[in-house]
Amino acid sequence: MSDYDNFFLPADNLEEAKEFYGRQLGLEVKFDFTDKGMTAFRVGANEPAIILSTRHAQPTIWFTVESVKTAYKDLTSRGISFLSEPFEIMTGYAVEFNDPFGNKLGLTDYSKMGPSS
């Protein structure tokens, strides 16, 4: 794992989430995909964002890796049980798993974004 990616928090009302995180806390919107069930807020100049999602039922931390498929194979061989096979997202691939305490963690890559310059 090379870095944090995003922090997912559940939200059953994205308009209320935008009011709280945007207007009340003063965070800048990074992206707003309300039609896909999520909106994201920047925290300072950090690339990782707080993403409020109607899809995530519990808080989730995602980490970036070079290749989700490679990391999936490696971590499976080390005894990690994933919640699914790697799945495609807009920027690449992702996969999620629980730690021994029930906290949800995930891996993501940016393989659809091409080489970084």
UniProtKB/TrEMBL annotation:
Domain of life of the source? Bacteria
Check the record and name the InterPro entries matching this protein.
Glyas_Bleomycin-R_OHBP_Dase, Glyas_Fos-R_dOase_dom, VOC_core
- Domain named VOC: which ranges? 3-110
**What is this protein's name?**
VOC family protein
